[in-house]
Design a protein that fits this description.
285 residues; mainly alpha; disordered N terminus; disordered C terminus
Length: 285
């Protein structure tokens, strides 16, 4: 038989009246965490620019720079998230009449929520200037749509294709129309898989031969070399982007852990229970 407990109005059920989430403390921790992240990012940007160099034989290598960037992202996540989580736990309202297990869970949740709020704030703050740059770039591109000097990701490869060993040999008609046609061919092909169709490759080789004065065999060789270089560059960019995404994911997860752990310490110090009694044993476990 199941007993039914009916709670009468005005009867004390033992549940504390203080809310389980102290939003002022969470917000304070998130804002501090976000601010520290930007400070450390600015410092890291300056540090990175000071160790790289366009001159051969000077500065750090590309591999060292990538690994250093990833490790620095982890350091940023640890420092900013730990301080933000600690403040979220230390500044929260004290819960009276709540079991120690529940207090421990709430402190952990405070740190996690502060980390999540900081991540959202950071994304919004970074998206705003990025959106302005994109809109400004789109406006500038619209105003200069008729200019033949526009630069795109494939322009350098087309320049290489149409570079003549004899500068006076420019017998392919309208150079701008030729460039535009080749740009469209390359952009479409690399967007759809990175391969020029056999017919397009033959046509490109004929255009290169006509524009540069090269023999058909040399034009075919140049086309193959440029296509291979373009694939190599795109693959390197893809790998670098993937590595950065993995480093960012690792830093975010580490930040969530550090914020949650630091909040439990801040909450324990707030209540005077950190390192003593039940709380200390739980923390050490």
């Amino acid at each position: 038989m199941i007993d039914t407990v009916i709670v009468q109005p005005g009867v004390d059920t033992g549940e504390p009246s203080v809310a389980g989430v102290s939003w002022p403390a969470v917000t304070a921790g998130a804002v501090v965490s976000c601010a520290l992240t930007f400070v450390l990012l600015a410092f890291g940007l300056g540090l990175g620019l000071s160790v790289v160099s366009p001159w051969a034989g000077s500065g750090v290598s590309a591999t060292t720079f990538k690994i250093g960037t990833g490790l620095y992202l982890l350091v940023i996540a640890m420092l900013s998230s730990s301080i933000g989580g600690y403040l979220a736990g230390r500044l929260r309202t004290r819960w009276t009449g709540v079991h120690s297990d529940e207090v421990y869970f709430r402190d952990t949740a405070h740190g996690f929520i502060a980390w999540a709020l900081a991540a959202v704030l950071g994304a919004v703050l970074l998206a705003s200037p990025a959106g302005s740059l994109i809109s400004g770039g789109a406006s500038g591109a619209t105003q200069g749509a008729a200019a033949a000097s526009r630069s795109g990701p494939m322009d350098g490869y087309v320049d290489t294709l149409l570079r003549s060993d004899n500068p006076s040999s420019q017998n392919a008609g309208n150079g701008n129309e030729t460039r535009g046609e080749l740009l469209r061919l390359f952009t479409s092909s690399f967007r759809n898989g990175g391969e020029l169709k056999s017919t397009d490759r033959e046509y490109v080789a004929k255009v290169v031969a006509a524009r540069t004065g090269l023999s058909q065999a040399d034009a075919d060789k140049r086309v193959n070399e440029v296509v291979t270089q373009a694939k190599t560059d795109l693959d390197a960019a893809r790998k670098a982007t993937a590595q950065l995404a993995f480093w960012l994911t690792a830093s975010l997860l580490l930040g969530a852990f550090c914020a949650s752990l630091a909040a439990t310490e801040g909450g324990g110090l707030r209540d005077g229970t950190w390192g003593t009694g039940t709380w200390g044993n739980k923390a050490r476990r």
